[in-house]
Amino acid sequence: MRRMFIRLDIAIRDIMGKTGRNIIQAILEGERDPVRLAALTDVRVKKSPEEIARSLEGQWKDEQLFVLEECFTMYNP
């Protein structure tokens, strides 16, 4: 089984903070470009946009995106 290999948790300490939520929302809306996703970071994030973009490179599998959406929806009713 192949994994998504998307590791937002490495680049951003609090993935449910402002930056994490913005990136996850954009992913769920269809954005896949790591550079565009990294541009959504808040100025307080310590990692560079390049480091964040590298953590967002990978394969996008429909079933994993479905699980991400379900979890995100449950966390944000």
**Termini Cα gap:** 31 Å
Low-confidence stretches: none
Compute the number of strand runs: 0
How much helix, percentage-wise, in residues? 40-55%
Largest sheet: none
Shape: globular
Class derived from helix and strand content: mainly alpha
Report mean pLDDT, rounded to a whole number. 88
Keywords:
77 residues; mainly alpha; 0% strand
What does this structure look like?
Helix content is 53%, strand content 0%. With 77 residues, it is mainly alpha-helical. The model has no long low-confidence stretch (mean pLDDT 88).
Provide the fold topology.
Layout: H1 8-11, H2 18-28, H3 34-38, H4 49-55, H5 62-75
Question: Would you kindly provide a brief summary of this structure?
Answer:
The chain is mostly helical and 77 residues long.
